[in-house]
Amino acid sequence: MAAGIERTTVFVALTRPQMFAGVTYSFFILNGVIAAELFLIFKSFWALFAATIIHLIGVMLCLREPRIFDIWITRVSRCPRVRNFRLWQCNSYRP
Q1: For a Cys staple, 39 with which of 9, 27, 47, 83, CB 3.0–4.6 Å?
Q2: Does the pTM of the predicted model rise above 0.85?
Q3: What's the pLDDT score for residue 55?
Q4: d(CA 2, CA 45)
C-alpha cells in the first residue's frame, strides 16, 4: 500500500471552487468586467486581446492552486502594511 494520501473523486470535486474555462468563476466575471471597461474606455477591439492575455495568466496561476485569487484577496484585506514596514520587513494582522 502506498504511503500517500488516498484521494477520491468525490472529495476533490467537493473541495475545489467552481471553475469556468480554467479559472475560478469570480475571476472569469472580473476579467469580463475589465474587458468591458477597457472596450468602453478605448473603443477598440484590442480589449478582447487584453482579456485573452489576462485570462491566460489566470489559467496559469490556477493550475497549481485553484483558490490563488481568494487567498490573495484575503491576505491583502487581512494583512495591511504597518507604519514601520521598512524597518521590520513584515506585516501584521489587524487586531
Answers
A1: 47
A2: no
A3: 94
A4: 53
Q: The cell 480589449 sits on which residue?
A: 47
Residues comprising the chain, all counted: 95
Helical packing angle, 68-78 and 46-64, nearest 10°? 90
Q: What confidence category does residue 92 fall into, taking pLDDT thresholds of 50, 70 and 90? A: low
> Which grid coordinates belong to 63?
493550475
3-state secondary structure labels for all residues of 54-69: HHHHHHHHHHHCCCHH
Secondary structure of residue 41 in the 3-state scheme: helix
Between CA 31 and CA 36 the distance in angstroms is 9
Question: How many CB atoms neighbour CB 19 within 10 A?
Answer: 14
Task: Quote the CA–CA distance of 32 and 58 in Å, as a whole number.
Answer: 13
